[in-house]
Amino acid sequence: MIRFFTEYLIDWKSRKDRKPLIVRGARQVGKTYTIEKFGKENFNDIIIINFEETPDLKLFFQTNDVIQIIQNLEIYYGKKIDSTNTLLFLDEIQTCPEAIVTLRYFYEKAPNLHLIAAGSLLDHVLNDLQYSMPVGRVEFSYMYPLSFYEFLIANNKKSLIDFLKSYAIKQEIPQPIHYKLMELVRLYFFIGGMPEAVNIYMKTKSLIDVERIHENILKSLEFDFSKYGTRTQQQIMTKLLKYVPKALGQKFKYVNFDNSLRSDAIRKSLNLLSMSKIIYLIHNSKANGIPLEHDSVEKIFKPLFFDIGLSNHILKLRLTDIENLVLNNEGSLAEQFVGQELLCRAPYFMENSIYYWLREQRNSEAEIDYMTQIGNQIIPIEVKAGKTGTLKSLQVFISEKKLDIAIRFNADVPSTVQVDTSIKIAQNVKKVNFQLISLPFYLVGEFHRFLNF
Fold first, then answer.
1. Do residue 74 and residue 171 come from a single domain?
2. Which residues pair with 425 in a beta bridge?
3. Are 94 and 128 in contact (CB under 8 A)?
């Protein structure tokens, strides 16, 4: 299974300023498989220490003497660790916090050694180690479920990716190709990007098998809840896991989730799920300038699930006849898809952040589904499940923020139009003029190429 993240690992290997690399991401998104495959294909040897499978090896990391650690590992495995030709992979490192601390000493005392660490619940441990993890001694990177492009490659559709990567905005997409791509988008809606689910579909083409894998993954996520948080928090997290897919695209309101619980208890459980990369909290930003984070409102957010396939499984949408399936929440699924695609974009050395804009004023409400920053520009993004939809909120936002370009994702073929109109905001009529780039869902990964700056 080809992962674009491998390209980042190859670049990391060749850099002279390389540091020990910590790979972060949710459970079962493919961290172990990808790192092992990279190691076998790019090194003469790879030593894999899985601290869950071999807990005795934690004893080696009770010291910060990395030379001694390396010598002990050489004795244990019966072979030389060559810093040039050996990859040392510390998997499930969250179960051995001492090993996380030693990474700084590997950087200082064995800087040429290629060392990668990964773990499913790593962020919880890193949060506790925030005063023990010196800045500048390690690198971080982020992995996500398979993107739509990776899903296409897994299903032997690389020719479609080549077509999309070379597509020019004014080029006509033949209807048969458009329909084929939209069918694949819809298939991705239900299979999602979890490697095990994609892999079983590649082998059997059975959607029932996919459902079985989804159920197993979700049960393993619930099992993990016992590893962090109190019993009460575990119960709230389990309830949130089932609630969030129903609330996609909506401002999260504590009272709508459970009015019998204190908001502080819910907030703590949300944060635990966020640290586990199971959900992402898309915060509202006033968008008065860049960076968008500067104007973000911590208390106003909408949740995004980490995988659309698992989200649909929680909603109990059966996959046996997806071609004829009519969904009441088609709009929220489209928003989940676009948000998921925006988050998993390169570069992988930073955690991508997306925001949304919400104005809650009487008789003047408006909302922009997503906002992202490209260069020094704020790019508003609207998501429509079908081929049409109103643009009032977008026009209000463009007028207030004095922008000149916007993106809309929908089910139609690509188009660009110069919007020149007037809108009424409160008691004032304002002129609005901007370029609207309208793209089908399968071009989320290419939208940045079509911006004229």
1. no
2. 428
3. no
What are φ and ψ of residue 38, in 5° steps?
A: -60, -45
340 and 239 within one domain: yes
Whether residue 260 sits in one domain with residue 125: no
Q: What letter would DSSP give residue 173? A: P
Q: Residues 6 or more apart from 105 whose CB is under 8 A from it?
A: 64, 65, 66
Bridge-based pairing of strands 139-142 and 86-91 is unpaired
Whether the CB-CB separation of 441 and 182 falls below 8 Å is answered with: yes
Q: Which amino acid is at 156?
A: N
How many of the other CB atoms lie within 10 Å of CB of 190? 23
Structural domain that includes position 444:
356-450
For 177, residues 6+ apart whose C-beta sits below 8 A from its C-beta are 160, 163
Residues 328 and 189 in one domain: yes
Q: Which of 298, 319, 347 is the last residue of a domain?
A: 347
Buried b (16+ CB within 10 A) or exposed e, 300-318: bbbbbbbbbbbbbbbbebe
Does pLDDT of 25 surpass 90? yes
For residues 275 and 322, state if they share a domain.
yes
User: How far is Cα 259 from Cα 452, in angstroms, rounded to an integer?
Assistant: 47
* Residue 44 CB neighbours (<10 A): 10
Tokens of 441: 């869902």
Strands 139-142 and 114-118: unpaired
| Token pair 């689910």: residue | 197
pTM: 0.93
Q: Are the beta carbons of 58 and 19 closer than 8 angstroms?
A: no
Q: What is the dihedral of CA 212, 218, 223, 224, to 10 degrees?
A: 140
**Is pLDDT above 90 for 161?**
yes
Residue 432, SS3?
strand
Domain boundary, last residue among 105, 126, 142: 142
What whole-number distance in Å separates Cα of residue 341 and Cα of residue 343?
5
Rg from Cα positions in the chain: 23
Asked whether residue 158 falls in the same domain as residue 283, the answer is yes
Q: Which residues pair with 433 in a beta bridge?
A: 420
- How confident is the model over 83-107, as pLDDT tens digits? 999 999 999 999 999 999 999 999 9
Residues 350 and 377 sit within 8 Å (Cβ to Cβ): no
